[in-house]
Fold this sequence. Notes:
This is UBN2_3 domain-containing protein. It comes from Cephalotus follicularis. The protein has 2 domains: 24-123; 124-169. The chain contains 7 helices and 2 strands, in the order H-H-H-H-E-E-H-H-H. It has helices at 12-19, 25-28, 38-51, 55-59, 82-123, 131-147, 154-163; strands at residues 68-70, 78-80. The longest helix is centred in the middle third of the chain and has 42 residues, at 82-123.
Amino acid sequence: SSTMAAVSIPAPTTLTTTLNPLSNIINLVSIKLDRHNYPLWRSQFLPILRATQLYGYIDGSITCPPPQISMSTDPTKLVSNPAYETWILSNQLLLTTIWSALVRHFSSQSRVRIMQLPYQLQTVKKGNLTVADYFNRFKSVADSLTTASQPVADSDLILYVLGGLGHGYK
């Protein structure tokens, strides 16, 4: 027979009830996550995961059980492990809940950022930049737009680059 750690995995209905408060996680964490404040954000987020008994999925202490176990009546035969199915469901519910909260938080910022990127393309000037740095600025903005599913046509990009060079390059 296979051995498993004695870890209590919440049943799906219990987990759904537990995750309900996480659906409003943005209201529970006063710090809005950005690239500069992860340690502070983490210090608020982890207690929520611990209080809802979900931290084990994050730190790995609630490990995934094997997908199959030996039958109690015939140890040579394997059957589906219900604990495995419950763990997968619980893990995916947690992932979905957290992901949804992050999407809600960052999507509005992303939309604003996407709206600003074309303006940046139109207003970049070479000025004191080296030609390489000037082109890299365009490439960076164009790559960001492509990543956001808003690619810039090569012909438009060429016009922006030429337009920002200045009179010395006419």
